[in-house]
Amino acid sequence: MSRGQGTALITGASAGIGAVYADRLARRGHNLVLVARNEAKLNALAARLTVETGVTIEVLRADLTDEADTSRVEARLQADDITMLVNNAGVAVAGPTIEMDPERLEAMIRLNVVVATRLARAVAPGLAQRGKGDIINIASVVALRGDQPAISVGYGASKAYVLALSEGLDSELAPYSVRVQAVLPGATRTDLWEKGGLDINALPQEIVMETGDMVDAALAGLDQGERVTIPALPDNADWSAFKVARAVLHPNLSHRQPARRYRRNSEGPSVP
Question: Which superkingdom is the protein from (predicted)?
Answer without folding.
Answer: Bacteria
